[in-house]
Every structure is written in C-alpha cells, then in structure tokens.
Sequence to fold (375 residues):
Amino acid sequence: MINTALQGWGLWAALAGACLGTYICRAIGVMLSGRINQDSEIFRWLTAITYAMVATLTVRLILFPIGLLANVPSWARILICVLSIGVMVSKPTKRLVPALLTGTLLMMAFGSIL
Amino acid sequence: MSKADQPYIDPSEIPLEGSAAERFKTRSDAFWSGMRDAAGAPAMVLFAGMVGFGAMGRSAGLDGWFTTLSSIFMFALPGQVVLLEMVVTGSSVLAIALAVTLTSTRFVTMTVTLFPQLHDKDRNRHLYASVHLLAMTAWAVSMKEFSSIEAKHRLSYFVGLGLLCWILSVPGTILGYFLAGLVPMPITLGLVFINPLFFLLTFTEVKPWINRIAICLGCLLAPIFTILDRDTSLLTTGLIAGTIAYYFDRKWLRKRAGLIG
Fold:
C-alpha cells in the first residue's frame, strides 16, 4: 500500500492544495457574508442548505467511513447511533455527555469482540 | 440591567443591534465564556478526533509533520481524512485538492450563516483571520448559543470557543501519532467514532422546523448521492434537501403560527 502512496514533493503539494482549497472556501464565506442580512430570505435558505450539508457529511462519516470504522458492520454503527440518540432525547435537559459516552463505550465494546 | 425587569423575549427574536438581555458584561467575559464552553464536550470531541487522525496517519506511514501541519492549516477533520486516504492510495495532486475543496464547501455556507449574526462593527477584514477557527463543532455550538448572546459579544464568544478547539487539535494530532500502535484497536475505534456521533447528537438540539426538515432530508438523501458520487455528495444533497426544506417552510410552515422555532 505504501508503494502507491505519494512521495516527496507530491505529498507536500497535496497538503498545500488541500489547505489552500479549504481556506478559499472559508474566505469566500466571509466575502459573501458581508452582503447578507440575517433577516433575509436567502439567509434562511442558506441556513437550511448548511444544515443539510452537515447532515450529509455526518451520514457519510457513519455509513460510508474510511479506515478503521469500515471494519465495524453497518448495522452495529446504526444501532449504536440509535441508542445514543435515545439517551440524548430521554430527558429534555442536557444529556450530551452521557449520550456521547454511551455511543463511544458501546463502540469500544463492539471493537473488542471484533 | 437585571433579567427580572425584562419582559420575556424569545431568544431568536433578539435583533442584531442592542439587545434587551445582557448575557456578558465585557468582550473578555464573552471570550472566556466561549473558552469554558469549548472546554467541555466540543474540545473533548475534537481532541479525540485529532488523536484518531494522528494515529491513522502514523499507521498509513505518513510523516508526523504532514499530519500535524494539516491539523494546523486545514483544521477540518473530514477533509483531512479525505486528504490522508487519497495520499495513501496515490491520487494526483489536482484530484486531491479538488476532492478536499469539495468536502470543504460547507465552510462557505457555514460562514455565510454565522457571520451575519455578528455586530456590524465586527464585520470587517479581521474576519478573514477568525474564520480559520470555524469548524463544524464551533459552528454547531455558536448557532445554538448566538441567539442568547447580544450581537456585540458574539465574535468574542466565537473566538474563545474556536481558539481552544484549534489549539488543542495540534497536541491531539501529535499525541495520536506517537500513540499509534500502542493503543488497543477498540479505543482507536471509539476515538474515530466520537466525532460523527457528536454531530449527530447536536442535530437533536436544532429548534427551527425548517432546519429540522433540512437535516432529516439530508440524512435520507445522503446515502443515495454518496453512492452516485462521493466527492460532490455534500453539495448536491445540501442544495436539494435545503431547498426543499426552505420551500416547504415558505409554502406551509410560516402560515401556521407557533410552528416556527
């Protein structure tokens, strides 16, 4: 696997390209944000798009993971997510940390029987 | 100004300038409060993710500087994972830059939806520096908290929040790099999983119905578009799901009082 990996200048050029591409997206955001009012229709629309994008990224990370997480079967990943959300919404008060711990510990437990 | 003599105000109704409720006295008060809020779950999650990333980089046989520099200058974990994967499989430099940039397109709309909520005085060229601190974690927290923070203190709060996350990501990556191989596999698995799980859990705290619909549609459409084309899936799903949610909100939800969060 290492043989096909980028070596030398290619490696650093890829890093520079990735950093630049990411920062350009942030900078475009700042540029556009100057012209947008938070009470406008376009603001509501873009907010909805952003939430949908973030949701997509999350689903992609959970259902189509790269690397180690891919060794865990999809049903286990989904089941652990459902259980964690269950803990999260079980009470209307802050349940983020218990829910995070539930999911992480379950994933570790599953990993140890793999 | 005490809270008791203020009439009840829905946090989302607080206007951009001069709000009734004062959550923070000064800018530094807001900054440190942002740091404190980051020091809980957000920084813990990001730190764990970076440890996982550092470990992934080491096991892929990459240079330690490579993983660390990507955490400092990209500071976007999903994009970093794409970079790592494509470098290891030997993709071309151009293909890598393009794929990572497509994964980062969310920063355009994340910034556009966060920064207009800042005070007019803060909306200047300095934002080109502050924007680097923006990550999904800080964005999710800020979107939730901004509604209860007066406009003039929002930037300080955001910088405190983002700065701690950014600073911690560096030792996280380095630690992961040196721990790789020493840490048992199940623990690395937990570290890698905690990031997407955190995002998923924060969705349950989103209040406005238009955004809830966008999230649900995004979750449903994401697998389809990811199978069709992984690189562009963020953009296509975001546009389609977000637009449907917006249309639905405009056509039906707004006419029904009490449904708008």
